[in-house]
Amino acid sequence: MDEPVRHNRLTVDLEAIAANLAALRDCLPPGTRVAGVVKADAYGHGLVPVARLLKARGCEALAVAHLHEALSLRRAGVEGTIYLLLGIWPEEAPLAVEHRLTPVTEHLDVCQALAAAGRSLGRPATCQLKVDTGMGRLGLPPGRALELLRRAAALEGLTVTGLVSHLATAGEPGCPQVAAQSRAFAELLAQARREGFPLPDSSLVGTGGALVPPPELRGPPGLARLGVGLYGGLPSPGAAGRARLTTAMRFTSRLLKVHRVPAGTRVSYGGTWVAPTDTWLGVVAAGYGDGYLRSLSNRGWMLVGGRRVPIRGRVCMNLTVVELAEPLPARGDEVVLLGRQGQDQITVDELADWAETIPYEITCSLGAANPVTYLGA
Known about the structure:
The protein is α/β, with parallel strands linked by helices.
């Protein structure tokens, strides 16, 4: 035997990601360009394979959080526009310009460093400016952002390609905060364009804004930053049903043991579940050490033999107990923790709901803890 048997298997369906991209494009205004967000290892799905797929399927740009992620893409031969959503430090400007990257920044010193690097290297330097329209996180308020735009645009060797903001409550229909943010962004863009700044790749919407368009957004099509929806997840419950999205990740394990316990048996750490009657249990070879969240204890479900079985007791580091029903499965049988088995499936949104978290955390956790096998494309 050359290779050890792996109890757990994480697969990513690249064709599902491609289908999700097409479904989300159908929700966008005609002419809107797309930046596929592949930060955090493409939300756990694999930075380079997903980036290559998205570029092959027509994504006009990619977006990452950090410079090192973008450099990994360049080393892998991925071309085209790459946005650095968390920006750079001034001393990183030569690297950014050398590798034709577009940082998103709110700092004049970064703009100055990019312009200087562009002049020194003899190649164009680009950036985008971050605007805080109500997220309370990164970015300048609109008035200060407009002043930064004027100063940055005057720098020789630097082109500002757009303004960027982020919706705090995207995907919730009728949300007044979304309306207020989109109004502020639209007014800022209109003022900037009156002053002669075209800003063609300005961006406000992500997946939530694509599925539930902001009511106040006006002007020519810009750029949509599509993230969680590419992988089949929703940014909020209010966005459900707006596009046909498919969970791209499947996580499976195996039964290590099938056994019957008498009534009154306490199960797993802390004995938080007690068998009310004689009960068949299965021990699954996956737990929080494998990225399956402990918050699923006594709440989540898995698929065994195409049927849903409930988690009993606390999720352990590498083991989880489920309650079984007849006809009983056998030791070694497949267990599906995320994805389809038979006629049923556990979606990433369901799993996130049971864990009282968001689909982003589910896929990032599983992707960080397990090697990935790719299907399709």
